[in-house]
Amino acid sequence: MSGSPAVVMRLVASAYTVAEKAGAIVRKVLHSGELGIVEKTGANDLQTLADRLAQQSICASLYRRFPKITIIGEEDLPAEEIKEDLIENGHSEEILQKTCPAEYSGLKEEELVVWVDPLDGTKEYTEASRLLHHPTGALTPHKGSDTSQLHSTALWLLDNVTVLIGIAYEGKAIAGVINQPFYNYQLGSGAELGRTMWGMPGLGAFGFTLKEAPGDRRIITTTRSHSNKVVTECVDAMEPHEVIKVGGAGNKIIQLVEGRASAYVFASLGCKKWDTCAPEAILTAVGGKLTDMHGNAYRYDANVKHMNSAGVLATLRNHEYYVSRVPQSVRQALKTD
């Protein structure tokens, strides 16, 4: 093996440090307490200063090094000059040392599409901020107090937050990076905050310990804030032993790969391609699967519609079983792309 690393490996190596930079931005804005919240389509569809700055940082940093890639970000932002302190020029040397799967070794920049969610779990992020900056002083909790309860709730909410950078080729998710900005937050001010995981089908997934959910229990993870009758009907049809309601698509995939859930079931509109590209790549890299509720794969070409209109079903194992449990009424309610 000789020459420089494959383009896609260089892109993933850059995306890794870029995601870490974005995570740091997300933390900094939270601690400032000045979130600059605006509603996009309603109270459950928010955008914060962290969303805006993180996306600017991600897009500008990647475009500087890979000017021919296509980047599609969640936030519709005006074109403006990006401050130099938002640019991340580093890369992960560890990723560059990995051997690129042969099928991707010759890919060119212009063939790659990058899907970016700069802050997945914005609703939970804003709720956590309100609790942490509560007048009772939740940032400095006292054990056993109401303040301590507020603090614990805020930490749980922050676990939902991720930064997602997915890379696609010919419509398939071929690499993904997920940063959890507040990982280890519960350990206090002395702990190293955040972690970054990444994966590539044919190479593997890194940054976490793969664990399967108990084989004798069906544990379903689903939406915390976007439920409706169809979502509930579909979850119930899985005959779950337990249902975990959390925020963020990235967070739900982490639940799967770390053994806290058996399936991610979301039988509704709402999830977009930037929510699922990176998580799907990591899940696929460890043998899992993400599809719509009909069992059909989503495509991540530059020209596809952004909405995952037929819902999301993701599993680490036994995907066909969960597809088979989707009621006909749910299938009829959700059109395929």
TrEMBL record:
Keywords on record: Acetylation, Hydrolase, Lithium, Magnesium, Metal-binding, Phosphoprotein
E.C. no: 3.1.3.57, 3.1.3.7
Matching SUPFAM superfamilies: Carbohydrate phosphatase (SSF56655)
Gene3D superfamilies documented for this protein: 3.40.190.80, Fructose-1,6-Bisphosphatase, subunit A, domain 1 (3.30.540.10)
GO MF entries: 3'(2'),5'-bisphosphate nucleotidase activity; inositol-1,4-bisphosphate 1-phosphatase activity; metal ion binding
Pfam hit, one: Inositol_P
Cofactors demanded by this protein: Mg(2+)
Binding residue positions for Mg(2+): 74, 117, 119-120, 275
Family classification: Belongs to the inositol monophosphatase superfamily.
Protein name: 3'(2'),5'-bisphosphate nucleotidase 1
Organism: Sparus aurata
